[in-house]
Amino acid sequence: MNFNNIIKKLKERQETLSTMESCTGGGVANAITNCDGSSKVIKFSAVTYSNEYKIKMGVDKKIIDKYTVYSIETAQAMAKTISDFTESDYGVGITGKLNKIDPKNLTGEDNVVFISIYNKNNTTYTNNTIKVSFSPREEAKQEVINVIIKTLEDIIK
């Protein structure tokens, strides 16, 4: 799976997207920019591994405090924040744990990832919560990326 069809459709519609990634560490942005024509579509990507930088990018600290950093609410805030920050049509927010214990955020189930895609044109969120396999980190990231590709294909028809 790759982003080629999504990029083609977004270019035709003159729409853009941006990402705020945590556990995927820029993997989504990398997968997008591996495709021809991506520079017409992707506006910006931020890797915000820490709570501090999610907040500095504009995620409300109260959301993280109330729901934890590992929640669909935080993924939604990340998606909308990055869309607003870049004036993109779509914002993708990803947070979760992949094969590790986070000593700064002890709550949340291991290998669960929260994905939210914000569509500013109709102010809606499409959310996914997935349990990734306990596998090498690169493979777990690819599982998440594949879900994002499938979800964006469904949104951008």
Which runs of at least 5 residues are low in confidence (pLDDT < 50)? none
- Category by helix and strand content: alpha/beta
Number of strands: 5
- The total tally of domains equals 1
Tell me which CATH architecture applies here: Alpha-Beta Complex
Strand content: 15-25%
Mean pLDDT: 93
CATH topology: Maf protein
State the end-to-end distance: 16 Å
The arrangement of helices and strands along the chain is HEHEHHHEEEH
Written overview of the protein:
This protein has one domain: Alpha-Beta Complex (Maf protein). It has helices at 4-13, 27-33, 51-57, 61-67, 72-86, 137-155, and strands at 17-21, 42-47, 90-96, 112-119, 124-131. It is globular. A hairpin with a 4-residue loop joins strand 4 and strand 5 (124-131). 41% of the residues lie in helices and 22% in strands. It is α/β, with parallel strands linked by helices. It has six helices and five strands; from the N terminus they run αβαβαααβββα. The longest helix is centred in the C-terminal third of the chain and has 19 residues, at 137-155.
